[in-house]
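User: Round two. Same drill as before: sequence, then structure, for each protein.

Assistant: Same drill it is. First protein:
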Amino acid sequence: MTTTRIISARLALVLGALLASAGVAAAQDVATNYDTSVDFSKYKTYHWVDIQGATYPNQLTDLMIRNAIDSTLKTKGLVRMDSAGDNVSLFVGYQLTTQQTKQLNTFGTGGGAWGYGGGWGGMGGGMSTTTVQNLTEGTLAVDLYDPAMKQLVWQSTATKTLNPSSNAQKNQENMQKAANKMFKNYPPMPAKPKN
């Protein structure tokens, strides 16, 4: 298997993990950051862009992500533009990343304190077994750029341990839940003026 196919397979797993079950939207770790000096009410249109240096999944996974984000942005009052003309007020891009983590699982087989007629009065024995589980954690990051200012103005990330599903319809529904959660607080409320 080529490196490109391995990366593509891992990125597909990222999406699958982010969407694997109906409870995923609640289980994801979602974080949002944005430029507090920006008036987000001025943004009315957007155009999809590719992020330089990012690796993207296969076409089906890419379409699933974009459809979910398009649907969510539409509910926020934004209109997608097919070309990057003067009428575009935001550029939208995403990227997927994975990282390997380890989880230690320890299982005990008993033991405890003995005392008062139950034995020798010290701490009891017992055995424990620790296993190491290798996990893959995936992160989907969605970025909003202001083309006039030429800078990133908003980002949301969703991170989840990978556990992909083979049900495409369920994955699309859960991708929509994930996108909704990522954009839950968009547009951010304007900062209150200081007194």
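Second protein:
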Amino acid sequence: METIQMNRMNWPDIKTAIENGYATVVLAIGSTEQHGPHLPTMTDTRIGDELARRVALKLGHTLQANSISIGCSSHHFGFPGTISLRGETLKMVILDYIDSLVRSRFRRIILVPTHGGNFSTVQEALKEARNTHPGTEIIGIADFEKILECLVTTSAEFGVTANESGAHAGENETSIMMALEQALVLKNRFAPGYVGSVGEGELKLVWEQGMASLTEIGVLGDPRKASAEKGEAHLDRLTGFVVQEIKKQLS
């Protein structure tokens, strides 16, 4: 096959691929939101596009469906350019998306959220979709803390602290975007954001009062140690982690 990306394929070739054993499909669920003064608003979705592609290739006999590019991002409304869906809206979008893929006769559907605000909604959607489609295997990566731990662990191998690696537009996301979209990363705007610990209190503040209550520039972490080399390492490790988590759930 020349491509596994369904948006680059026509329906006869998708049908043939499914009939030839490509009955698994993976899609990312990203966001359109601020990522500090140095990264584009498509960051989560762009990372999701690449992660889903790599995961599909690693799994084998798997197609990649279009990413969902708008997520639950209301906590970023303090920064222009953020577009958000309500949780119930995103859940319905995911459920309709899954219904469509089931109608195409995919037998396994894998959801990979790449924005922290989407994980709880993805968990709800997974539960409901499984009840609606008992004949289809529907799985997802729904633990944001494990994803963040994977990124922080990789950062540490390069001498980057957990606080610098960050949870939003810090070293890890900036490095990945340098590997994927170098021209869209504005190095002259690199600056540390909030570099303290992010615990329950800080997360509560962000969810209730918005990201701007914790960081004036919309960054959790410090992008100044980011590099394309680190970005490739992050993508490689993250792909391996996601594939491992998926295989744990396979029947």
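The mean pLDDT is 96.

User: Perfect.
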